[in-house]
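FORM 7B: Structural annotation worksheet

SECTION A. Query
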Amino acid sequence: MKKVLFSIIIFSAAAPAFAQEVAEKSFWDDPINDPLLPFYLVVTFLTITAIITATVGIYLVKVLNTLAGQAEKEKAQKLGKAYVPKPSWWSKLVQRLNASVPVTEEKNIELDHNYDGIRELDNHLPPWWTWLFYGTIGWSVVYIIVFHFMHSLPLSQEEYQNELAQAEEQARRIKAARPETVIDENTLVFTQDAALIEKGKSVFMNNSCGSCHRNDGGGNNIGPNLTDAYWLHGGDIKNVFATIKNGVVEKGMPAWGKSMKPEDVRDVTFFVMSLKGTNPENAKGPQGEIFTPPTEKADTTKSQASL
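SECTION B. Predicted structure
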């Protein structure tokens, strides 16, 4: 038994050291390779062993009490005496905590008050309730001294402010470890980057953009067609990025830049730009003005000048 207790103490002391080596990784992320796995297995084994031992011990005590009671009953019968079973330790404890008067002795505490056959008894408060009441008085004295006079521990408001500061510091560290990508929409250029387009498609689907524009971009009663050359707010990559980021609230288009990361807005923009010319079936009719890229305008002007 001493060896078991010693092992528990050693593992309990070593657990914080092991925990410090785990770099913000949960045990359930990779339980097999977690350094605390042996500790958890030992604690689980010892806990199960303790539960089984306690259960068997309680059962054996119950069996021994039953056998002892039968032996006393047989002995009383042989002596011609009435057998009176001894109260269990639990019954004694409950009686001591409640100090209740047995029904057979209620005459001793009966008051001279009788209402329609309902008798009033002179019962006192249970000792456990009285001890609890005195305990709360003692705790209130300790609380006032520790929290209000000695200022050894923070009050609830101060504790809240400390936890809030810790949370803000933790958020700052996480943000510093994972810096947010800055997307400059003024220098953004669309390319047929398959990886970005696929990511944008995933974000488009996960945010239910298809509920307004259809999953193929063909548009429905709410959202316009994203596959033709007609645009309501400009059709170059800067205009599309700004529309997705800032939204068009009066037309039901939310400002996704408030809930999406900048790179997600960029990826969705690339996906929307990639839909141009796909011509899905039953697409919505044109809305807005036809958009011609500046390069095409320049080429047209040049060709007209040559004529």
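SECTION C. Observations
The CA atoms of residues 62 and 68 lie 10 Å apart. The radius of gyration is 39 Å.

SECTION D. Sign-off
Analyst initials: ____
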